[in-house]
Specification:
about 120 residues, mainly alpha, about 70% helix
Length: about 120
């Protein structure tokens, strides 16, 4: 018995959102920020982070295939089945942690550390 197309699309959507949530949590933890985001903002940033993680993993694949075949092609077709997704998913989650960590360091470096209030000194 095969899954209906709507169910398969829902499963793919959830599987593609999880890396974004992991990246978002990694950013907030590694940058040391405590931000209250609305559900819309969490979803939006998760979509963006998932796209960044999927893109990073795809370009690693492109580089690997360029080395393996000796031919560089920026666009390579992918036809992933369930077994392929299960095999590659832990790697995608690891890439999402790396993307979150790098984003957190860039965020902290861009904004710098927040100034701490100085104690009043007597003159």
């Amino acid at each position: 018995m095969a899954f209906p197309d709507l169910a398969v699309n829902a499963i793919y959507t959830v599987l593609c959102l999880v890396p974004g949530f992991i990246s978002l949590k990694t950013v907030t933890y590694a940058a040391g920020v405590d931000v209250e985001l609305t559900e819309f903002e969490k979803s939006t940033w998760s979509f963006i982070a998932s796209g960044a993680s999927l893109s990073a993993l795809y370009f690693v694949y492109v580089a690997w295939m360029a080395v393996a075949t000796g031919r560089f092609a920026l666009v390579r077709p992918l036809d992933l089945g369930w077994v392929d997704i299960v095999a590659v998913y832990p790697l995608l989650l690891a890439v999402s942690v790396v993307v979150g960590y790098v984003s957190a360091k860039a965020y902290a470096r861009t904004l710098g550390t927040p100034p701490t209030p100085r104690a009043e000194t007597a003159r």
